[in-house]
Specification:
The complex is a heterodimer of chains A (about 250) and B (about 300).
Chain A lengths: L1 H9 L5 H11 L4 H7 L5 E4 L6 E4 L4 E2 L2 E3 L6 E2 L10 H22 L3 E8 L5 E10 L11 E14 L5 E16 L6 E17 L4 H35 L13
Antiparallel strand pairs in A: 1-2, 3-4, 4-5, 6-7, 7-8, 8-9, 9-10
Chain B lengths: L9 H13 L6 H12 L2 H18 L3 E3 L6 E3 L5 E3 L2 E4 L4 E6 L4 E7 L8 H21 L3 E9 L10 E13 L4 E13 L3 E14 L3 E16 L3 H38 L19 H10 L4
Antiparallel strand pairs in B: 1-2, 3-4, 4-5, 5-6, 7-8, 8-9, 9-10, 10-11
Classes of the chains: A alpha+beta (about 250), B alpha+beta (about 300).
Subcellular location (chain A): Cytoplasm, Cytoskeleton
GO molecular function, one term (chain A): actin filament binding
Protein name (chain A): F-actin-capping protein subunit beta
Amino acid sequence: MEAALGLMRRIPPKHSVTALSALVSLLPNHSSDLLSQVDQPLQVLCDSESGKEFILCEYNRDADSYRSPWSNKYHPPLGDALLPSDELRKLEVEANEVFAIYRDQYYEGGISSVYLWEDNNEGFVACFLIKKDGARTAHGRRGYLQEGLWEAIHVIEVGPEDETTRYCLTSTVMLSLTTDKESSGTFNLSGSIRRQMTMDLPLADGHLCNMGKMIEEMEGKLRNSLDQVYFGKTKEMVCTLRPPSEVVMRLPNS
Amino acid sequence: MAEEECELSDEQKKEIAKWFLYNAPSGEIQYIAKDLRSVLNDDKLYDEATSEAFPLYNKSHLICLELPCRSGDVLITPYNELEENQFIEPRTAQIVTIDHVKQACTEVRPAADEELASPYVEEFRCALDAEILKYVEEAYPKGVCSVYCVDGKDAEGSGCNFEFAVVIAAARNSPKNFCNGSWRSVWNIKFKEDALEIKGKLQVDAHYFEEGNVQLDAEQECQDGTIFQAPDDCAISIANIIRHHEAEYLKSLETSYSNLSDKTFKDLRRKLPVTRTLFPWHNTLQFSLTRDIQKELGIGK
């Protein structure tokens, strides 16, 4: 199993879908572990009632159907399916509305979904998802991207309510950028990073506020990390392989 | 759905294993092989897969192996392959036998005359090799290169066409720093009666994997040409063309990177909202939140 995860860390991100299905077929006994531990590109369905799109993940799936956060119904319809409690559903509705505004502020487009469900420890788990396809920006202007995808998955385990409540956040951001400039051929930079953050917070401002702030902070850190460290390191590698001409002192003698 | 699939055939498992090996990033095939062996749990299948996949990987990544007795290096490419495990090293006129899976040389012998190019062609090859070597030493801290005659090696004089492949490879493997990368360029040069046709393919990749997995994968093709001259002049001309195109490519990679940071990334996610402040989560207590936020942010009248 560890070897399988090792393979996933090395295979180029653009091949991760093929790699995961290959591993699942090689190790059918570990398929549920693999599916839950390896993040895959997010897929989307359209809620027939509201006309809004929602994101699919393991957390809103039951058998082969997926629950929409907008109508709370499964697509395709499923009898006797898992649903959150009324109280949790109320929080879930609010979370989706607020998160959609957050998403609009930072991403200026994209799709978001939030799913909540009870867990066994008197608390609950929340999953916040965002999918942004950058090649179609909100304002209709074409950027440099031929293909650009940002997908964020934030899973928060919320502990039982006490003086302070414990929130454990695991965030994964998957990114894929392909620039579209004739003169430079193809240029594809993709990757994923995952981080964790745990905080104990008082309930004064409510769960949503606590979780929201954690996610915002985490997304900022991940964005910076991707930009400076990850992209920076690969660029550094390129310049190490072949330093820019200004560095080379001697001129060709012809 | 995976539970419904029946057990894969050995052939299918082998194909999957080969796929993993072939797609290993530069310098990482041995690590992938180790993990794969564990996942496959079938040494016979593992051996078959590695013996089929390693040669393809090695040739595609233009790996560089040290010759025994430290007498130099040999590049493993599709352009200097004589037989399945035999490669010619023209600079020192040797034929090397290698073990693809171990990625090491097993045998070396001097090349026979028939295996080398004719003196006419060799003059051009040698002059070009010397110029390229100069260029690579100057431009690449850890580059290796070679010039192979891929067609027309027995040409005797003008009127006969021949073709060279110039291969330049540089790899930087730093697994302890979680970073690996490689630069590969292959230039095909067709020598025709009065002109030279030059086609280049440049490939760069880099992999950084500390707490994550980010990879760069870039590729560019280019074309150029020059006139047919004496061997030394041809060599200088070709080397200059190569130098020019490769430097230009590096510049355009740098531009792509800086656009990435400034513009492209912003198209995906801004650093901060337009309001230049963090999101106002604090009014979350009731449903009225959404209306408050909307008012505050001035959206949706």
